[in-house]
Amino acid sequence: MKDFKIAIIQHESVVMEKENSLKKIINLVNEAVKDKDVKLILMPELNITGHVGHSDIISQAEEVPNGNAVKTLEKTAAEKNVYICAGIAEIDNGVHYNTQFIVGPEGYVGKQRKIHLSGDEYFYFRGGSQINVFQLPFAKVGMIICYDNMHPEMARVMALKGVEVILAPHASRALNKENSMTEEEIKNTIKMYKEGWNILQRARAGDNNVYVALTNMCGISAPHIDSLPSTHIGGCMLIDPYAQIVAESKSESIKDEIVYAILSSEIIKMRHKEECNPLRTRKPEVFYEISKRTE
What we know:
By secondary structure, this protein is of the alpha/beta class. It has helices spanning 18-32, 68-80, 152-160, 183-208, 265-273, 278-281; strands at 4-10, 38-42, 83-92, 95-104, 107-113, 133-135, 140-143, 165-170, 211-216, 218-220, 231-233, 236-239, 245-248, 257-263.
């Protein structure tokens, strides 16, 4: 791994408004790369096509990598000399997947399909079946999408495959509409979500000697569907291999935000050299139970 700077972005994305979302994404990329040191941009789960518990979630699905959205961001990544990690509803031979992909200056890099689908997503998506990792010029990375982060095996498998940075895009919803919550309720909900991620992702980072970069969608994703919760609360953070928060979003209201942070190769090296290193001292021969299905 080499030292590099990441831009972690939270933003609003509305279902059935893919073209508007792509325009916003490009504008946010343009804003992020005003910092010439930024090498990687992380964006939320399904940020291109939007997220809601309704069939609209797949209404604008595209092929990956052959669809227009991937091609558009390939062009942007090449023009700006940056890697972009974004999310989309994918369609492949009539089957839909919740997919996160990476493009860079050289074009399409690869994708990760969400494996463990949450709640109402089961009605619209099929779960993925592979845990993929990708070697970028500055780091080996993997993508763990939202509810997949609740399964610690995901991060451990990636760490065993040599991942140094886990990208954790989310589209986590609050129970209430933004316009039905007071400013204080919004502030407290943002705090609650970030405290939960703080506990979970610090463990993932520390247990696996990796950086974890997290972002969450923000705003109302389906204002045309009053009967369904579609308010996403936002939240960004970067956690280092010692389980320390390096940077995090500051918003106390629901709004777009960019968080910048530097990832240090030296910290990765130091963590891996330690005598009490969980990846070195683990005894997989006693873990056979973990591969059994839960009844």
